[in-house]
Design a protein that fits this description.
475 residues; mainly alpha; 2 domains; two-stranded antiparallel ribbon; 6 strands
């Protein structure tokens, strides 16, 4: 049934599917690791058991999300060798060392301290355990640092040379490659998005339990902390997003044209198209709702500044406008709602009704998954807007794929879809089950479950109950 299918399209769909699943979990675990460090730090500083209860409550959720992120990431990396071997061969000398640095720094740091963080609360001192929590949080940030450096180099490649065999080789300085022109903006924008994603989940869970019992002290505390994060960080994200957009305009102007829906050039100021239906066949946006010259004001800080359109770009160099146009608006629209939620929470605080205002709680609950949708929409905008290139301006996507037949790619795609929805669906269901139950006083930790942590060597023999010896002598 796939004999006439496009192997390249199937490979792109497969990578998009797996990376979208994967991105959900790091976007949550990066922020949640930092939140856990804050909770444990507040417990050590104040001695209030409430912070420890919240730490134990979210630690169980973090453990599952972190595990699913690691597993989905490992699977995704294999596709560089299966579906994208030409890309791996040509770009490997540059991106290979960067991804190895991620393993040698972030992954080893996380792996070294994760066990202490999850199971060491009663086995090591408070200071060492807090250090382990901090190291895991720092490790998640370092991981994001290296992965985003790789992705940013693919968006704005600099600091390399091209070898005789067509490979991209590192130039004189790795610093130029690592800190490429778009990397600082992309790193800050993505990490803030992860913090907002976590805040919205924590706020949504707190709102859920406040709707059932507004006197729950644990729910009140987590909701308050989450709303502070939304109120303070959402405006910062708007500012950082604007800087990121200006950087993209400088280095990837075609992506901005697709995001804005500018099929035609505007020599006297470009309008901001709020909504519409991109029509690439006719090179226009149908049924558009526009604000005159506002796009020029945002992008050039001048109402009358000229902006070039897609009519200046050859058709084969243009990305799929419809996808980029709408994914960008989904991201911005959800970001606007996040800003509104933070502002509403400030009004509620001023009125001393943060824990009593049920419409606010319902809105926060509705917004709980919005961070995940926004980060996926942002990723789609970034990656699809880069097309038709994997390495912008240097290596086309059509020239990056492995020479595979469509049925082979389709078979692995179907397998990924089935396995991912089964495995990660169950994991997500269990996370939601944990969130359904409110945190309470003397919240049990991971080590206090019925069976304890899994031991790689099996069940360690221990003494029997009563006075019986641990091992009965053979008859």
């Amino acid at each position: 049934m796939f004999d006439n299918a496009d192997a390249l399209l199937l490979a792109r769909i497969q990578f998009a599917f797996t990376v979208s699943f994967h991105f959900i979990f790091p976007a949550f675990s990066i922020g949640l690791a930092s939140y856990l460090a804050v909770l444990e730090g507040l417990w050590l500083r104040t001695g209030k058991a409430l912070y420890l209860d919240l730490f134990k409550y979210w630690l169980k959720i973090f453990a599952i999300a972190f595990a699913m992120g690691v597993v989905s990431g490992i699977v995704m990396s294999y596709q560089f060798g299966t579906n994208w071997s030409v890309f791996s061969d040509k770009a490997g000398p540059v991106i290979g060392p960067l991804m190895a640095y991620e393993v040698l720094t972030a992954f080893f740091l996380e792996a070294g301290f994760l066990g202490v963080m999850l199971f060491g609360m009663k086995k090591v001192g408070k200071g060492l355990h807090f250090t382990a929590t901090l190291m895991v949080a720092i490790g998640t940030f370092i991981s994001a640092f290296w992965i985003l450096s790789v992705n940013s180099w693919m968006q704005t490649p600099v600091g390399h040379i091209v070898g005789e065999n067509g490979q991209f080789l590192p130039g004189e300085s790795w610093w130029t490659i690592i800190f490429n022109p778009s990397f600082p903006y992309r790193l800050v924008h993505t990490v803030i998005a992860a913090y907002l994603t976590t805040a919205l989940v924590v706020g949504g869970v707190g709102a859920w339990h406040l709707l059932k019992d507004k006197t729950n002290a644990h729910a009140r505390k987590m909701f308050s902390m989450a709303m502070w994060m939304a109120a303070l960080v959402a405006p910062v994200q708007v500012f950082v997003g604007d800087l990121h957009g200006l950087n993209t305009l400088e280095h990837q102007p075609v992506k901005i044209m697709a995001m804005e829906g500018h099929y035609q050039s505007h020599p006297d100021g470009a309008p901001l198209i709020l909504f519409g239906i991109p029509n690439s066949d006719e090179a226009r946006v149908d049924w558009s709702i526009e604000i005159p010259k506002l796009s020029s004001l945002i992008l050039k800080h001048d109402l009358n500044a000229p902006l070039a359109g897609l009519d200046t770009v050859p058709l084969e160099e243009q990305p799929p406008v419809g996808i980029v146009f709408w994914s960008f608006r989904i991201m911005v629209g959800l970001g606007t709602l996040m800003f509104a939620l933070g502002l509403w929470s400030l009004v509620a605080r001023a009125r001393k009704s943060l824990y009593d205002w049920r419409p606010l709680h319902k809105f926060a609950l509705l917004m709980a998954p919005s961070g995940f949708v926004a980060v996926i929409a942002g990723w789609v905008t970034t990656e699809v807007g880069r097309q038709p290139y994997t390495i912008y301006g240097l290596l086309r996507t059509a020239d990056s794929a492995s020479p595979l037949a469509a049925p082979a790619v389709a078979a692995s795609l179907i397998a990924f879809v089935i396995v991912y929805f089964a495995v990660f669906g169950i994991g997500t269901w269990y996370i939601l089950k944990l969130m359904h139950h409110p945190p309470h006083t003397d919240e049990p930790g991971i080590e206090e479950t019925e069976h304890g942590p899994v031991r790689t060597a099996g069940i360690t023999p221990g003494p029997h109950q009563g006075d019986a010896p641990a091992f009965e002598p053979a008859e």
